[in-house]
Automatic annotation (TrEMBL), chain A:
One of its GO terms (molecular function) is transferase activity. It comes from Paracoccus gahaiensis. Keywords: Transferase. It comes from the Bacteria. Pfam families: Glyco_tranf_2_4 (PF13704). This is Glycosyltransferase family 2 protein.
Length: 341, 562
């Protein structure tokens, strides 16, 4: 019998679900084999990043450089059986702790069990950033204020979570045309985005907003936008071991962590995760992911890409905007500085 | 008459003692005397390190440490003790400045001394009568003095609220000590030594302390109230730039505020983010050849902060996004700009859309909410802001669709609607003051004339569309309507189409010289006949009126007269 079938009041049901997720994460502790453990270096008040990855050798150097500059102090990686040398490269980095697993990504709730496990053990009391290797956080004033400025301010405002919507970035021409080279800024190639085509609905049960749209829905999911990828994310959370990510980083339990928006007409502060998914290695990668069949909803998304890719891959359209800086994104209303003057 | 001013500073330090030590150094090196109070909660090690850092400086005293909790009297107690220690250790001090360990002096201490020397008997303390003006932001005002507050709000939030509510219900009203008028103001002040001594040595001090011990946030009222009792002259402003947000939390200052802070010409700013290195190396600005006594001008930075408060509380109208998702009727502006809707016009004038686009300076779309496709102007596959023309995507979130379109387009948006279209936005548009709605009721029937459909189908479609239109008109006639609505009956419109059409354009940004012509009207031949057949088939075409002013064949006249 499924949890959702039990005749429980919603509050109790959410609590049960959270406890189940926490227990499940604890249960996965043996699935993760420590490769390099530098967690002893973590100091009080450090900002930690949690990442699951598979075969991302190409992207990792810039990824680490970007978040180091931003002020992340320690990276905790789960290496899901990479075979391209990512593991070796990561284990040489001074601020990385690395775990290895060959368990099924799908059966670990798309890696969230592993991440929940690491968050539970190392994240408690820290501001924790849970991202993918192709997601780059921007937030208001990110050009002048490092991440600790934001987390200090969030602390002072009594907030425990910070939303950052996923913004799909793509190049002007065919995705395959310009080759991405290791260590370079992916947004020099993929520097275009959709400014206004996002749909928002509220999920009454978890209390989060469900945002969809963007180039992927416009291009691949016109007939069935409901199954398009979700773009709402809450990647930055002041963690407590009792918390749990429910589905990717789209929503959390307890429910109050999802309430990152104002319903009385005001604006809360929010950021954006620039999504560098659509680079030259995307075709190859999506074919591989499709073969593994390890993704959400029977890899529906990757199927759609694959069908689309064979027809050629241009996401760009005449209404796309070229990325400039966070101010532009804020003027467009995709992020907000809220009351962070 | 100029007299030498000797500034003494009471420095209240809580956390980040390393930063506080830097601030103390700035003050001492500028020539001020400093009394430091360190919160009793700070660890012994950090205090020792702070004392170590400041060991080379003369002119610093440390006062007895109290535990400090926000909103409680122990903050006043700490200030009193430190001020006493300061005045005892340095009797030559003429002015005492209260600052915290995260208050950054922006201008040289020498400038501050020169500024104070202009009027050496003046006390600079913001002091606003609690009875007359609401000074506070989001909190209690007069009740701070008339109720009892024995609990810490941060630790016993629920109990605190419960106690306040009950005291209100029981009409508890504390008696103020005789001779005091409660005043409120910023907790950061600069008093003359004379006033401060008078406050500290007041024979009734025990009585006052007892009273303020149970008042709420006494650090914003104790000195502000008592200064009124002892001061010679009060300049009711604070020399410290300290702005609070809507929740009463102080704003933090970062590196990117450097320029604005320099322009503000304030003496001290609060509260500096401890890691804002550039800010701390830039300020205080080096002293010029002559002491600069220009007064603070914080208007610009205050404007910036007020703007962000507004953004936090009211937000940008018509914006729906990840951190602003207003519930119905709390939108503060449902849409971001005026727009116009024409219903029925494209049925009467088939070329209406192109004609309108030629005559007005606006984006004229077709049926944006239409059932076949989203008819953006020019019918592109991807509309403004990369909004898809897929109806499925649009119907997933019609509100988001419309508001995003209006927000992303620089020009005014004009579009057609019809009972055939998606009706989900009827209430939203009708209650939006930005909307301008023109309806010709019943005009949807005209395209049916040329449809060539069998009569049974026409009858069914008519019934559906008529019901949709009636529901819509109910909305437009309700008392909740905020949009500007003009509903014309088809009969009236057809009686003088040109005048009605031109009248509807009045509120649009017309191009110069326009409109010069009238678009081609649809052939209305057979309308009366159709209406009659519909009526006879049991339907009541309600909206078209009875007397259509159309040339009809005599045959119809006879039948209609049956």
């Amino acid at each position: 019998m499924r949890l959702s079938d039990l005749p429980l009041p919603n509050r109790l049901r959410r609590r049960t679900e959270r406890q189940y997720l926490v227990a499940r994460a604890f249960n996965r502790r043996r699935a993760l084999k420590s490769t390099v453990d530098r967690t002893g270096k973590i100091r009080k008040g450090d900002i930690l990043a949690f990442i699951t990855m598979r075969n991302e050798r190409l992207r990792l150097p810039y990824f680490l450089e970007y978040y180091r500059d931003l002020g992340v102090n320690h990276f905790l990686f789960v290496n899901n059986d990479s075979d391209d040398g990512s593991g070796n490269w990561l284990s040489e980095q001074p601020d990385v702790s690395l775990w290895w697993t060959n368990a099924s990504y799908k059966r670990s709730r798309f890696g969230m069990d592993w991440i929940n496990r690491l968050l539970m053990k190392y994240g408690s009391g820290h501001w924790c950033l849970t991202v993918d290797p192709d997601e780059f956080l921007i937030y208001p004033h990110c050009d002048t204020r490092p991440l600790p400025a934001l987390t200090d301010w969030l602390d002072a405002s009594g907030r425990r979570s910070f939303p950052a919507m996923l913004l799909d970035m793509y190049p002007r021409g065919n995705i395959e045309d310009e080759i991405y080279e290791e260590g370079t800024d992916p947004f020099r190639i993929a520097r275009w985005f959709d400014p206004a085509n996002y749909t928002i609905t509220k999920n009454a049960y978890y209390g989060n907003l469900w945002i969809q749209g963007g180039p992927r829905t416009r291009r691949y999911f016109t007939a069935d936008p409901l199954s398009g990828p979700a773009l709402n994310k809450t990647p930055l959370v002041k963690w407590h071991w009792r918390y749990a990510y429910v589905s990717s980083t789209h929503m959390l339990l307890p429910r109050s962590l999802n309430h990152v928006y104002d319903e009385n007409g005001g604006e809360q502060a929010s950021g954006c995760l620039l999504h560098a998914k659509f680079l030259s290695n995307f075709t190859e990668k999506s074919a591989e992911e499709l073969d593994r069949r390890q993704h959400y909803a029977n890899s529906k998304e990757y199927r759609a890409y694959h069908a689309g890719l064979r027809r050629g891959t241009t996401l760009w359209c005449s209404e796309s905007r070229e990325y400039d800086d966070w101010r532009q994104i804020e003027d467009l209303g995709l992020i907000s500085r809220g009351n962070w003057a | 008459m100029r007299r030498d001013v000797q500034i003494g500073v009471v420095l209240l330090c809580h956390a980040r003692l390393d930063v506080a030590a830097q601030m103390a150094r700035i003050w001492v090196e500028g020539g001020a005397r400093v009394a430091i109070h360190v919160d009793a909660k700070a660890s012994a090690r950090s205090v020792a390190r702070m004392k170590d850092q400041l060991a080379d400086l003369p002119g610093i005293v440390y006062s007895r440490r109290h535990r400090c909790d926000w909103g409680r009297f122990n903050l006043v107690r700490a200030t009193q003790d430190a001020a006493q220690a300061l005045l005892d250790a340095f009797p030559a001090v003429t002015h005492v400045y209260l600052a915290s360990g995260s208050c950054l002096p922006l201008r040289p201490v020498r400038d501050l001394a020169a500024y104070l020397a202009r009027d050496p008997h003046c006390d600079h303390i913001e002091s606003v009568s609690a009875l007359d003006v609401g000074w506070t932001v989001g909190g209690l005002n007069e009740e701070r003095f008339t109720l009892y507050f024995p609990l810490d709000w941060r630790q016993h939030r629920r109990m605190f609220d419960w106690l306040t509510t009950w005291q209100r219900k029981l009409r508890v009203r504390r008696r103020l000590p005789k001779g005091l008028t409660p005043h409120l103001g910023s907790q950061w002040w600069c008093l003359t030594a004379a006033t401060l001594r008078a406050i500290l040595d007041d024979p009734r001090r025990d009585e006052f302390d007892r009273f303020f011990r149970l008042a709420w946030i006494p650090d914003e009222s104790y000195f502000q109230t008592l200064a009124r009792r002892h001061a010679v002259r009060i300049e009711s402003h604070s020399l410290t730039l300290a702005k609070f947000d809507h929740d009463g939390r102080p704003y933090q200052l970062y590196d990117d505020h450097t320029l604005m802070l320099e322009e503000s010409r304030c003496f001290v700013a609060r509260k500096v983010w401890p890691q804002a290195r550039r800010l701390m190396t830039h300020f205080p600005v080096p002293p010029g050849p002559q002491p600069d006594i220009s007064p603070p001008q914080p208007q610009r930075i205050e404007r910036l902060i007020n703007r962000t408060v507004r953004r936090r509380l009211l937000g940008r109208p018509g914006l729906y996004m990840q951190s602003r998702f207003p519930r119905k009727d709390s939108e503060n502006g449902k849409t971001s700009a005026p727009y116009a809707i024409f219903q029925g016009f494209s049925d009467i004038f088939p070329e209406f859309e192109t004609w309108l686009a030629e005559n007005v300076d606006a984006d004229v779309h077709g049926h944006l909410l239409g059932p076949e496709m989203v008819e953006f102007a020019g019918r592109p596959e991807i509309g403004p802001g990369a909004i898809s023309s897929s109806t499925v995507i649009r119907d997933r979130d019609p509100h988001g669709f419309l508001t995003a379109l209006i927000r992303i387009s620089p020009r005014m948006q004009v579009f057609q609607t019809s009972p055939r279209d998606n009706q989900a936005l009827n209430w939203f548009i009708a209650t939006d003051p930005n909307a301008h709605i023109h309806v010709v009721a019943g005009a949807w029937m005209l395209p049916l004339l040329e449809s060539g459909m069998p009569f049974d189908d026409i009858r069914r479609v008519t019934a559906l569309l008529q019901r949709a239109e009636l529901t819509h008109l109910d909305v437009l006639n309700s008392v909740w309507v905020k949009a500007r609505v003009h509903v014309h009956e088809l009969t009236d419109f057809l009686a003088r189409p040109q005048a009605m059409l031109y009248q509807s354009l009045q509120h649009l940004p017309l191009r110069p010289g326009a409109p010069a012509d009238v678009p081609q009207m649809r052939d209305l031949h057979g309308l009366s006949d159709l209406l009659r057949r519909l009526r006879n088939s049991g339907l009541r075409p309600r909206l078209s009126g009875d007397a259509l002013p159309l040339p009809e064949p005599p045959m119809t006249e006879r039948t209609a007269a049956e």
